[in-house]
Amino acid sequence: MPTLIDEARTARENAVAPFSKFKVGAALRTKAGKIYRGCNVENCTYGLTVCAERVALLSALAAGERDFTSIAVVTQSEEPSTPCGPCRQLMWEYCGDIDVTLANLAGQTIEYKLSDLFPHPFSFCIE
Ligand code: THU
Has 53 been annotated as catalytic? Predict the structure, then answer.
């Protein structure tokens, strides 16, 4: 059975990154064990680019999912790359303090809780 990192690696293969050439894959696991994949999708205005983490999260939310346990993110960087600020905010709002596994193609991995990466969240709307 593929690991969450394997799923993120597979997701990365569909990345649309003609501008940055930086392909990212994400795989988000629900509490029930279902996995939603996402990849970054760039756009010629640049500003409309959507990150892999957000594609995975929005796809899961659109499918009706609300409970998540973990996300894996795979990049080609020398060190596993951390999610951008807006993705951290959205993950916090919709996933809470999930496990975040960052990996690169060389097989290096780093494990965090989202609260390690996003320690002082804006969360007035979260009960
Ligand atoms: N990117 C992601 O997909 N996730 C992140 O957390 C950071 C950045 C994408 C956006 C863009 O397509 C490329 O990586 C370079 O910034």
Answer: yes
Closest atom, ligand 1, to C-alpha of 20: 15
- List, as own/partner pairs, every contact residues 16-21 make where C-beta atoms lie below 8 angstroms and the sequence separation is at least 24, other chains included: 16/40, 16/41, 16/42, 17/42, 18/42, 19/44, 19/46, 19/49
58-92 residue pLDDT tens: 999 999 999 999 999 999 999 999 999 999 999 99
Assigned CATH topology for domain 4-117: Cytidine Deaminase; domain 2 (3.40.140)
Catalytic residue, candidates 7, 42, 53, 65: 53
Per-residue confidence band for 127, with pLDDT thresholds at 50, 70 and 90: low
